[in-house]
């Protein structure tokens, strides 16, 4: 009599371990890739926040300077942290830009100050330089650094940009 062996269908321990290692490696790399995508998305959002806030501040300051008829402060040739503009409209006179902590504000006439930046960014190194000369419309140079707040010191939220422009009053 001859013995016949039948092969049983199934996985050996080595095959099972190999499949588990391959599946675990795939899951690990997919998780790392997803984490990198999330970090890049947060970083892009941080940069966009600083860019939008800086552009907004420059638009408001530019519009106010162009619509004013004089620069009250700082004096010609002087750099200051506050800008005061004279305006024909008594409701807007004076228009004052200043820093309250790390927030840039505008105050028009007797109205309450309005914050131009939100709580996600901090303004620093704010300078207004009066470049005006005699018998010319005023010219003001504005510069500031806008930094995204990063209380946890995470790389994704670490972004800062320096903004600078010169604006001339309209020749009335």
The profile of the biggest β sheet is:
5 strands, antiparallel
- Spatial order of the strands in the main sheet? 1-3-4-5-6
Shape designation = rod-shaped
- Assembly status: single chain
Which descriptors apply to this entry?
alpha+beta; 5-stranded antiparallel beta sheet; 172 residues
Brief summary:
The protein has one helix at 13-67; strands at 70-73, 79-80, 83-86, 95-100, 103-108, 114-115, 121-130, 139-148, 160-168. It contains 1 helix and 9 strands; from the N terminus they run αβββββββββ. It has a 5-stranded antiparallel beta sheet with strand order 1-3-4-5-6, with helices on one face.
Structural description of this entry:
The chain has 172 residues and is of the alpha+beta class. The protein is 32% helix and 31% strand. The chain contains one helix and nine strands. The protein has one helix at 13-67; strands at 70-73, 79-80, 83-86, 95-100, 103-108, 114-115, 121-130, 139-148, 160-168. The strands form two sheets. A five-stranded antiparallel β-sheet has the order 1-3-4-5-6, covered by helices on one side. The chain has a four-stranded antiparallel β-sheet with strand order 2-7-8-9, with helices on one face. The longest helix has 55 residues, at 13-67.
């Amino acid at each position: 009599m001859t013995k016949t062996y039948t092969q049983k269908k199934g996985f050996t321990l080595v095959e099972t371990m190999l499949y588990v290692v391959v599946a675990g490696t795939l899951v690990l790399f997919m998780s790392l890739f997803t984490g990198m995508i999330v970090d890049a998305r947060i970083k892009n959002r941080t940069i966009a926040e600083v860019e939008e806030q800086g552009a907004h501040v420059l638009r408001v300051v530019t519009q106010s300077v162009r619509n004013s008829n004089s620069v009250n402060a700082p004096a010609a040739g002087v750099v200051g942290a506050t800008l005061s503009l004279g305006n024909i409209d008594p409701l807007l006179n004076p228009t004052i830009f200043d820093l309250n902590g790390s927030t840039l504000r505008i105050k028009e006439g007797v109205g309450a100050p309005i914050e131009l930046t939100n709580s996600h960014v901090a303004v620093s190194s704010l300078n207004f330089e009066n470049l005006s000369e005699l018998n010319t419309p005023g010219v003001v140079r504005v510069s500031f650094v806008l930094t995204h707040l990063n209380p946890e010191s995470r790389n994704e939220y670490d972004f800062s940009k320096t903004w600078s422009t010169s604006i001339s009053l309209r020749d009335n």
